[in-house]
Amino acid sequence: MSQLAYAITADTDHAPQADWIALCQQQDLAPFSGVAARFGQYAIALFYLPGEAVELYGVSHIDPATGAPVMAHGLVGESGGEFYVAAPLHKQQYRLSDGQCLSDSALTLQVFNVQLLDGQVWILPPTE
């Protein structure tokens, strides 16, 4: 089953910093899986890894190899202490920490600054 999260109203009283915006609720996330979210023009894949040193990652939902919006449906894996997502169509593996493809250095996913705080997922809007 596909999940989709939409930006919620900003709650600046609980924001980690002034520029952060509440994206969705923590309960919208699927543990050890991806959820697609939309923030303005950006399609984002959120990966929630409860209990890990970094519990939440945000990368582009758009597969750079095909242009298809599928990355939230990829499988999460771990190799050498680094988490990655395997693209569902052609199985390229992208590190969640920096978006770099492990098999093709020309391919990268855009990475978004996200964090969990008080049951909400917060995003720092990209400056581009």
From TrEMBL:
Assigned keywords, A-Z: Oxidoreductase
Any one Pfam family match given in the protein's UniProt record, by short name: Rieske_2
PROSITE patterns: NIRD, RIESKE
Domain Rieske, residue spans: 21-123
Domain of life: Bacteria
Coiled coil: none
Protein name: Nitrite reductase small subunit NirD
The organism of origin for this protein: Arsukibacterium indicum
